[in-house]
Design goal:
This protein has a single domain (18-215), classed as Nuclear Transport Factor 2, Chain: A (Roll). 28% of the residues lie in helices and 27% in strands. With 217 residues, the protein is an alpha+beta fold. Residues 1-11 have a biased composition (Basic and acidic residues).
């Protein structure tokens, strides 16, 4: 796929200046260190997502960014997943189904991201032009437009017992605010929006025809 178009805002978090952290109390110094670590995690997430979005059809995403208890939600309530294992399965199913029909080399996915430090959220707007491998299968190129919001875990990197918190600074929530296919809001059964019902119906079972995706593990 062609590379994505990404605009990253400068991330400026409270207490990020080294000059201000010289003569702080231990409590304030800990707050500064936590903010600095969060800033690094946000920067890593932006860099990784910048690579993952354009290669969605051809390469497995980097799941190291995500919290073990990540939740995936859609604004219409039709999609509700929890736990990283379910998140991986859902994205893997979508990738596999789309890759059956659409040409990864000819398709294009572009994205733009903006970080909101007040909400500690990363907003990713994306659009995709999915070109079928054989025009007769889906009939035409499919255009997808969407907005995803990623929220980060704000818990301390070290707990009260001094143990490292592996989930600190990782993406804890993924919210789908908008998802349009050829200009229309995507409706369940979701794969039908891409003309895939005949191809993936047997493989994906209940997920293809379900009114919503909602399961936990």
């Amino acid at each position: 796929l062609e590379s994505s178009t990404v605009e990253k805002e400068h991330i400026s978090l409270p207490g990020s200046s080294d000059n201000n952290s010289n003569n702080l109390s231990p409590f304030l110094q800990e707050m500064v260190d936590e903010q600095r670590e969060l800033q690094m995690n946000v920067g890593k997430a932006m860099d990784t997502l910048r690579k993952d979005y354009p290669d969605f059809l051809s390469r497995t995403p980097d799941y190291s960014l995500y919290h073990e208890n990540i939740s995936l939600k859609a604004s219409d309530g039709q999609i509700q997943l929890s736990k990283l294992t379910s998140y991986k399965k859902a994205l893997g199913l979508v990738r596999s189904a789309l890759s059956l029909v659409y040409d990864a080399d000819r398709s294009i996915i572009q994205s733009r991201m903006v970080y909101d430090p007040t909400r500690t959220e990363l907003r990713v707007s994306y659009n995709a032009m999915l070109v079928p491998k054989i025009m007769g299968v889906t009939g035409r190129t499919v255009h997808v437009d969407g907005i995803s919001i990623y929220a980060f875990d704000l818990s301390a990197s070290v707990d009260r017992e001094g143990k490292k918190n592996e989930g600190a600074g990782k993406i804890r929530e993924h919210r789908i605010e908008k998802l349009l296919v050829n200009g229309a809001a995507m409706q369940p059964p979701y794969f039908n929006n891409f003309g895939l019902e005949a191809l993936v119906g047997q493989r994906s079972g209940a997920l293809v025809g379900a009114g919503a995706w909602s399961f936990e593990q």
